[in-house]
């Protein structure tokens, strides 16, 4: 009997000892589509009520997990939650893949935040335009990115020249020079390129757009007073990609875009080329072009090197040749003949380089080095005047990122130089050199599960205009019911140069150089506040709304005033430019349908003028509606946009107008075909007021407040030789 009791005791002791055995384990989480580590995913043991978050390598580490079977749940915003049973200890590596699904916007990591956080956890308000919407806009306008920006709430694309088509971006009613354009975090196309910059960025090799409205100078330096637009390029994947896009318009515009990318274990490459030809187009038959005769060629090759899983080095070149001539159609097509002698010709060449080195120092820290050199050569010719010059810009930056469970840090320093050199034969020499040193630090801190605080400070020093301290602060509240709200503000500045919209409007003729001894840099302050709510009205109907309120003020604004001797000189405004307003964005989803509604109130006052008038060429009220149907086979979009009344510089009030567009695309296994009816109601300024005033040999061009080209019909073909999903 004692033997049996002893045996039972030994068995019980053995079972208890086996049950008490524990293991330290690692669980790795990857994305299913890209097979890349997923930072920030949650791995949760249900029975143990124990969880951990994956690090930069996608690994969640656990200690003292009891041996045996366990039910785990792996989840991440924007991905489908994954539930499975694992055995501890395991004979194989514990690696799991998450599939994208749900609200994918939350899963997007935005580069312009300089953080690895998702949209939902960033206090700074960032608007995101993904690859799908970019593809739609590329179909509507394959030559440049103006369509992407024009149809974003609160953004106006202001055309400054009928003859060249030069166009500036205005965010919340502020001139284009107050918006910083970035590509992959590099400053892009500033200064001399002016209104041509938007026209020389094709969209096909871009993966996403990130738009920050309001002062963003803390992270990106001077110029981001109204906001910034960061364009993120496509990167190569192990699966090869080849997109060929051919487009033809009834206005005799032809465009070809080609993009190819591929990578292996150590190397990757992306190649992009674009060609565009536009015949001079005169829909009114008034003898002057509404679209200039244009020949444009762009190329953008990039080489990627991956020495290890944690390090990437890439180098890219961007080259553009652009020749556009507009004005008298007879002279463009047949040469000068009597009264047919007015044309405006812009010939420009651009070459820029980008070098990026990124390395993961450990699971929570990374280092990045960037350098770019940009060269721009432009020759602007109108009768009896020529403006010819070259501009060279350089940008160098080093930054360090680190993160812990509750906080993210980014610190860095950069050097920006700009050198504009006008042709030595010019009667007015407007050469200008600027050198700016900067250092910055930014912190995002989780105060709790619901409250997140972001603070930052930049200190810039310009060798001519002095020191600029630029603090910023943002606070985010979010909960699990779909509600969130952000409030933030900061300071900004802009180094003055001659390349303003007013100077461009008169082709820089008789414009004096910046007098650095009498002109101060422009300075700004701004505050944004928004609320967001997202829910499902039923199992099939989704709903979201975003309401934004903003205020931005600019002191020492740069004005171009006439002198007694017929010249123009720059001066600082005696009072501020004050812009305030609101933006509303509403989205409904139902099965394959999406409906977007937006409204923008833009109230920009020039307080330095008597009566504090509204800024010219700025509609106070704007609204839009976009209805999309998307299935595997079809993509159909119908757009309606309302632009309210505006004031010209002479205080004349313009008419309001509505434009409409329709896109139809059919997808096949090896590509797509599409037709696009842009502005099919043919709203254009010539229907309301003349675009050109006599005399014919020396015409006067009124300010542009409405579309000038009218209805544009285009057909196109997208070829994907490597194929897509089968849509037959």
TrEMBL record:
Signal peptide (residue range): 1-20
Residues of the TonB-dependent receptor plug domain: 119-227
Protein name, UniProt field: TonB-dependent receptor domain-containing protein
Bilayer topology: Multi-pass membrane protein
Keywords assigned: Cell outer membrane, Membrane, Receptor, Signal, TonB box, Transmembrane, Transmembrane beta strand, Transport
Family label: Belongs to the TonB-dependent receptor family.
Source organism (scientific name): Winogradskyella litorisediminis
Highest taxon in the source lineage: Bacteria
Protein localization: Cell outer membrane
InterPro entries hit by this protein: Beta-barrel_TonB, Beta-barrel_TonB_sf, CarboxyPept-like_regulatory, Plug_dom, Plug_dom_sf, TonB-dep_rcpt-like
Keyword Signal among UniProt keywords: yes
Coiled coil: none
Domain named TonB-dependent receptor-like beta-barrel: residues: 295-679
